[in-house]
Amino acid sequence: MVRDWLVLESHKRWHEERLPIVEDRIRIRLDDLSVRLGDAEWLDGAFSAGDLLMVQVLRRLDGADILNDYPNLMAYVARGEARSAFKRAFDAQLAVFKAGHGS
C-alpha cells in the first residue's frame, strides 16, 4: 500500500526518481521504530491503543516487502493482528468504511 499514492502519480515524469527517496525515508522511520521496539512485545510495556495504531500503520506496508528487513516489526504486527482488541477495532473500522461506500 505504500506505493498506492505513487501508483496514482506513476504517469508523472518524476515518479521513478521519487520512489527510492520515499522508500529511503520509510526505512529511516522503520530503523528508528525497530530500535525503539527492540525485543519488547509492545511499545510501552502492556498492549495499548498506541500498539493498535502502530500495527495498522505498519500493515500499510503490506505487499511492499520492505517490512521483511525488520523481523521484530513483522513479529510485532503478527502479535498485534492476533489480539482480539485489534480484531474488534479493525472490524469496526471496516464496517464504517463499508457503510460509507454502500457495500
Summarize the structure.
The chain is mainly α and 103 residues long.
Characterization of the model:
The protein has helices spanning 4-8, 15-37, 49-59, 71-82, 84-100. The protein has 103 residues and is mostly helical. The protein has one domain (4-100): Glutathione S-transferase Yfyf (Class Pi), Chain A, domain 2 (Up-down Bundle), CATH 1.20.1050. It is flat, with a radius of gyration of 16 Å. The relative contact order is 0.12.
What summary fits the major beta sheet? none
Structural class: mainly alpha
> Could you give the order of the helices and strands?
HHHHH
Rg value? 16 Å
Using the 3D structure, state the CATH architecture. Answer: Up-down Bundle
**Broad CATH class:** Mainly Alpha
> Strand share of the residues?
under 5%
Shape: flat
Key features of this structure:
mainly alpha; Glutathione S-transferase Yfyf (Class Pi), Chain A, domain 2; 5 helices; flat
Break the fold down into its secondary structure elements and pairings.
Layout: H1 4-8, H2 15-37, H3 49-59, H4 71-82, H5 84-100
